[in-house]
Amino acid sequence: MEQNKTTLGLNLPTDPRWVNIAEKSIDEILIDHAYCEQKAASSGISLIVQYPEYEELVEMLTDLVAEEWSHFERVLEMMNKRGIKLSKMRKDEYVLAISKIVKGGGSREDQLVEKLLLNALIEARSCERFKILHQNIQDEELSKFYFELMVSEAGHYNGFLDMAKRFKPEAQVMKRWSEFLAAEAEILKTLEVRPDRMH
After folding, report:
1. For the stretch 172-198, what's the b/e string if a residue is b when 16 or more beta carbons lie within 10 angstroms of its beta carbon?
2. Measured between alpha carbons, how far apart are the two ends of the chain, in Å?
3. Contact by Cβ (8 Å): 195, 22
4. pTM for this structure?
């Protein structure tokens, strides 16, 4: 059996250079992280608006939105302690690129599964980045903070993946998930390792 190569089975681990430049630019990382949490909450709200008829989905997303927004508030708290101001939102090249993995067409449920898998992928990569920060940065408060978020993001990843399996057979979902992972790994190879991006 093939072993998972990194956190949550991602096919390609983060470039080891990322954590070094991230720690040197932790102000910029925190700003980008704040917006990542805000966008995660917004994405959950968007899915609720698009698919209100699925009660279990709405229930799961309602909890997720509340948690992601609390993370946004906590990142702002960390920034305030360090005298960091929230500046303009940056272009999220990673999310823009992986969004192209999503297939159009098909049934309403086909489209929902694609969106759930996209969100699962973002949560998985975020979890991996938080784990790297927890294990490597010297700021003890931030290290503990990122451990807590790592655990939370892993839960969100599982939530999205499990929810997808409620709408399509597990074998079909996992086949498509493997395609998402393979495509994401290729995309990651093309992106610059930046000091001002969480992804």
Report:
1. ebeebbeebbebbeebbeeeeebbebb
2. 29
3. yes
4. 0.93
- The label of the residue with tokens 């690129």 reads 97
Q: What sign has the CA pseudo-torsion 81, 82, 83, 89?
A: negative
pLDDT in tens, 85-97: 998 877 889 999 9
Output the six-digit token pair for 195. 């000091």
Say how far apart CA 59 and CA 47 lie, in whole Å. Answer: 11
Positions of the chain with pLDDT lower than 70, given as ranges: 1-7
Read off the DSSP letter of residue 16. Answer: T
**Residue linked to tokens 């892993």:** 154
Residue 197 CA to its chain's centroid (Å): 13
Q: Where are the beta strands (DSSP E) in the chain?
A: none
- Non-local CB neighbours of 82 within 8 Å, separated by 6+ positions: 27, 30
CB 63 within 8 A of CB 79: no
Q: Where are the beta strands (DSSP E) in 156-195?
A: none
Residue 30 contacts residue 195 (beta carbons within 8 Å): no
Q: How far is CA 101 from the centre of its chain?
A: 15
Looking at 10-135, which runs of residues are DSSP E strands? none
